[in-house]
Design goal:
elongated; Tumour Suppressor Smad4; eight-stranded mixed sheet; 306 residues; six-stranded antiparallel sheet; alpha+beta
């Protein structure tokens, strides 16, 4: 990994992505050196092909790890998701064994491009994120999450001071697995043909939103329900009941955190998502019982309300 700019370097903003092949030592132990080296090379070539297809550039390879840069963070995320999705059908080391898994980390910021590769603090942050990732995870910094903007779903993992950094950063996980996303939030659920209502406990009282009804939440007018908390935007989100489902549309600066039952909160920012069931919503920060930025909700279909 290149870490120091040469005498002739160019500064630019980019998203740095690391992809690491999990348990490579186990692969070498099971296959032997020669077969394992060929196996790992094939998998990394597949990753390289995906990175290049999404307009990325592989700038370094160390062992079982690739480092790439992207001009657009959205392309970096798309490449990461494509690698994770496709890797599930890649070759395995033995019959009836699952394919090796990947872990990915990325960060957006300033880098120095020089003849030997890239360097800068953004490289170090991205490297720390891939090191912190678990198998099948895509971890990204808050800087990358903000740069990506709308159109993706994230789960806020933690705030952590990474090795070599002075200040903590927010770390997010991209929700790329359709099974995971459906379990958490049903973002691509087929529209229901039923009708129902939405029950919301907010600001110390319980409110029922009828089928096709909606309410807006924010820190001040024109929001219908005003919640006083510094994390909440003036007009933060809209909650609507459509076909027995809760439809949340986020308009805010800080985003909205949604937790179904006992699941970890998922992050929604300036997009819409549909879900059904019961849970908590935190406006601007993760939900906390008894705090003014948090509400409880429950969707009820006709069979429940009749």
């Amino acid at each position: 990994m290149s870490t120091a700019p040469g005498s002739h370097s160019i500064a630019e903003d980019a998203t740095v992505l690391f992809v690491d092949l999990c348990d490579s030592s186990g692969i070498f132990r099971r296959l032997g050196d020669q077969a394992a080296a060929s196996f790992v090379r094939d998998l990394l070539d597949r990753c390289r092909s995906i990175i290049e297809r999404f307009s990325g550039q592989v700038v370094d390879q160390v062992g079982d790890e690739l480092m790439a840069r992207f001009a657009a963070p959205q392309r970096a995320l798309a490449a990461a998701i494509d690698m994770q999705t496709r890797s599930r059908s890649w070759p395995s080391t033995a019959p009836n064994e699952p394919p090796p898994m990947l872990r990915i980390g990325m960060h957006t910021g300033s880098i120095h491009v020089h003849e030997d590769g890239i360097a800068g603090d953004s490289v170090h942050v991205a490297k720390r994120l891939v090191d912190a990732a678990k198998a099948d995870q895509v971890l990204l910094s808050d800087a990358t999450r903000v740069a990506i903007g709308t159109g993706a779903l994230f789960r806020c993992v933690e705030s952590r001071t990474l090795k070599g950094q002075d200040e903590p950063i927010l770390i997010h996980e991209a929700i790329w697995d359709p099974t995971d996303a459906t379990t958490e939030l049903h973002p691509h659920a087929t529209p229901s043909t039923t009708t129902g209502q939405l029950k919301v406990r907010i600001a110390g009282g319980e409110h029922v939103v009828p089928e096709s009804g909606s309410l807006t939440v924010g820190r001040a007018d024109p929001a219908q329900f005003v919640l006083e908390h510094p994390s909440i935007s003036r007009l933060h989100a809209k909650l609507a009941c459509e076909r027995g489902e809760l439809v949340i549309t986020d308009f805010s600066t800080n985003g909205t955190y949604i937790a179904l039952d006992d699941s970890e909160p998922a992050f929604l920012h300036r997009r819409e998502i549909r879900l059904r069931g019961a849970g908590r919503i935190g406006f601007g920060r993760e939900p906390e019982d008894g705090q003014p930025h948090t509400i409880h909700f429950e969707t009820l279909d006709d069979s429940t309300t009749s």
